[in-house]
Design a protein that fits this description.
240 residues; alpha+beta; Penicillin V Acylase, Chain A; 7-stranded antiparallel β-sheet; 4 helices; 32% strand; globular
Length: 240
């Protein structure tokens, strides 16, 4: 169950701030963020080497796209396409509005259930696929939100119930200062279902972390770890 935290319009300079911890099976190989897709050289993100897609990426136009599993849908399934292709499909477009529209045109039945976040300096969207029918689309309001394997800000999730008030109370990042959010992303305090940073258990845990800032103008900022966030520092990721 990955976690994405979004702050919309909390800063005049940074209309979209996003943080994410990726939770995954420890034996599912991946590569750290880079330009891994020759057909999309403007896309920067981590590579899932099993299926060739990504869980979170940005493009040079300043669009960010992230995909998460919904409850009960971890891993691949026979007859279903990899959800990791969805951010790449979104990032073919120069704006979040166009990207979100393209994803909603898809038949959600081709993939296992998913949540997506697509945003830029103008708008941020939540999208939900339930494994059948149409993809649901919702424009997100200003403020701080958390998305996990449920709908945004669903406090039926112990992780959201514990951490949403903490992120809302924390001072918003002002890149390059991410200290408040980075500290919260490192929190592995039990119980595990409320922890935002999952200590490895039964071959599963938090495997990487990312921080993305989309500016009002100029180039996006992307920082990442290739481990759980308490094990290594965030480093800047950029295009060659």
């Amino acid at each position: 169950m990955c976690t994405v935290i979004i702050s919309i319009d909390s800063s005049p300079a940074w209309p979209l701030l996003l943080a994410a911890n990726r939770d995954e099976k420890l034996d599912r190989a991946s590569r750290p963020p880079g330009c891994h897709w020759p057909a999309q050289p403007d896309v920067l993100g981590g590579l899932d080497t099993l299926a060739g897609g990504t869980w979170l990426a940005i493009n040079r136009a300043g669009v960010v796209a992230a995909v998460l599993n919904r409850l009960g849908s971890l891993g691949p399934a026979p007859g279903k396409r990899s959800r990791g292709e969805l951010p790449l499909m979104a990032l073919r477009h120069p704006t979040a509005a166009e990207a979100a529209s393209a994803i909603t045109d898809l038949n959600a039945g081709h993939w296992r259930s998913f949540n997506m976040i697509i945003g830029d300096s103008e708008t941020t969207y939540y999208l939900r696929g339930t494994g059948q029918g149409n993809v649901f689309l919702q424009r997100m309001s200003a403020g701080v939100h958390i998305v996990t394997a449920r709908d945004p800000n669903d406090t039926g999730s112990p992780r959201v119930a514990r951490n949403l008030p903490r992120f809302r109370a924390a001072a918003a990042p002002d890149p390059p200062d991410w200290s408040n959010w980075a500290e919260l992303l490192r929190d592995a305090a039990p119980p595990m279902d409320a922890a935002i940073n999952i200590t490895p258990f039964a071959g599963f845990g938090t495997v990487s972390s990312a921080l993305v800032a989309i500016p009002r103008s100029g180039a996006p900022v992307f920082l990442a770890t290739d481990t759980a966030p308490h094990l290594s520092p965030f480093v800047h990721v950029g295009w060659p």
